[in-house]
Amino acid sequence: MADTGPVMGQPDGLDQLLEAASAADPSMRIQFRDPIAAHGASAIPQLRRWLVDPRLSAFAVRTLEKIAADPSNRRTVLEALGSLDPRGVSEWTSRDVADASARITGKAPRSVGAGGHAGREPVEQWPGSRVVSPLELRFHDAMLDVFRLAGEATRRTRSDGTIERGYWASYFLRGVRNHGGLDYAHQLLRKQGTTDGFQRLKEEGRLDLTMEALVLRPEYTSLFSDEERRVAAHRLAEAGYQPPHG
């Protein structure tokens, strides 16, 4: 596997990279994927442990999949993914691991729906169908994080100690996986009005977890037109939310 080298200002030792990735803001964590993956098999044991950590599981899956791009590591990565007990992790993590394993073995992922049944249509392999920039890939991963973070943020503990399931927008996840995060964001910004997910996050006081808020982050400015950013800002303003970086 080619060593892409660390991002400027990043540590380059594996232990330091893992520590920095664990402590990073979720929206920024993806920048550690390639530097960690460049360490190959040495990174797999820790990433395997992260699969059961709700905070780090999505990043672990993406990094393991990157490591598996080197054929010499493919079997070890598949063993790590296959060792996960789906009963001990969220439905999202279980789907994510299954889809990654399918892509590594050259199969079309078939995400599992909320009811536990296989989806009716295969999910397109993305972004394997075309070359994308590192920034677009980073935005795609951030869109997947929108799904996960919104689901976790809306989960509640009832008075009897049981857990009330959060809002897991499966339609949003399908859109991101079918089209890629950037293309799907373009689609949503062209539509009139906001989605059910936007309204639910408004009710929860978590508009910071919307696609619109993600679009307005300064690091993604070059991916969107002025009009698209205006639409995103207008939707949030009408809902009473002003992004901290807006």
How would you describe this protein?
The chain has 12 helices and 2 strands. The chain folds into 2 domains: 118 residues, no CATH class; 116 residues, no CATH class. Strands 1-2 form a two-stranded antiparallel ribbon. The longest helix is centred in the middle third of the chain and has 20 residues. It starts with 13 loop residues before the first helix and ends in an 8-residue tail after the last helix. A hairpin with a 5-residue loop joins strand 1 and strand 2. It has 246 residues and is mainly α. It is globular and about 50 Å long.
Provide tags for this entry.
12 helices, 2 domains, disordered N terminus, mainly alpha, 246 residues
Topology:
Layout: H1 14-23, H2 33-37, H3 44-50, H4 57-67, H5 71-82, H6 91-104, H7 134-153, E1 156-157, E2 163-164, H8 170-179, H9 181-190, H10 196-203, H11 211-215, H12 226-238
Antiparallel strand pairs: 1-2
Helix pairs in contact: 3-4, 4-5, 4-6, 5-6, 7-8, 8-9
Element order: H for helix, E for strand: HHHHHHHEEHHHHH
Mean pLDDT rating: 83
Total of domains? 2
Estimated helix fraction? 40-55%
Using the CA coordinates, give the radius of gyration: 18 Å
List unreliable stretches of 5+ residues.
1-8, 111-125
Separate helix tally:
12
Shape: globular
Query: What percentage of amino acids are in beta strands?
Result: under 5%
Q: In what order do the strands lie side by side in the largest sheet?
A: 1-2
Report the structural category. mainly alpha
| Spatial gap, N to C terminus | 39 Å
Quick one: biggest sheet? 2 strands, antiparallel
> What is the β-strand count?
2
